[in-house]
Amino acid sequence: MKFIFLVLAVLVAFVSCRPAEEIDIAKSPSYNGPTYNKAPPQGYFQYANAPGPHEYEFGYNRGNKDHSRSHYEQSKDHRFRTRAKWADTHGGYGEHYWEYNHGDYSAPSYHAPKNYDAAPVEAPKY
User: Fold this and answer.
1) Are 86 and 70 within 8 A, CB to CB?
2) Structural domain tally of the chain?
3) Is 103 domain-assigned?
């Protein structure tokens, strides 16, 4: 048993110590180069902008000729808004718009409702 373990340990050490074959991936026929140097398909992009400490905006247009999606989001001061649009070649189309505007803080504050005292209920008699 010890001999088998010793042979396996030597085999693992031999295999792990051999230098790996150098593979030049750039010469591979399936390698298309880095994606950061390629322009996206026409009309598709993404961006982000943070002009101040409490504001940002970002958006993108993604997809292909059969299906596309667009998203835009902005937060500035106490206002948040976003828009999502999508479309496909099967006639599917949709848009959603959201805007949250946190307004006047001098408005009366929320008052919790008063406790409700329910009348006692008698147990059914069988």
Assistant:
1) yes
2) 1
3) no
Domain range for 72 is 40-92
Convert 4-13 to b/e letters by CB count within 10 Å (16 or more is b): eeeeeeeeee
14: Cβ–Cβ under 8 A, 6 or more apart, which residues?
none
Task: Determine what percent of the chain falls in helix, strand and coil, rounding each to the nearest 5.
Answer: 15, 35, 45
> In whole angstroms, what is the distance from residue 100 CA to residue 49 CA?
20
Q: Is 77 left (phi over 0), alpha (psi -120 to 50) or beta?
A: left
Say what the pLDDT of residue 81 is: 92
pLDDT digits 0-9 by tens, 20-47: 666 665 565 665 666 656 665 677 888 8
Q: What dihedral do alpha carbons 74, 77, 79, 83 form, nearest 10°?
A: 0
Q: 83: closest CA among 68, 73, 69? A: 73
Determine the pLDDT at residue 41. Answer: 63
Tell me whether residue 61 is in a domain. Answer: yes
Q: How far is CA 106 from CA 49, 60, 94, in A?
A: 32, 37, 38
Structural domain includes residue 115: no
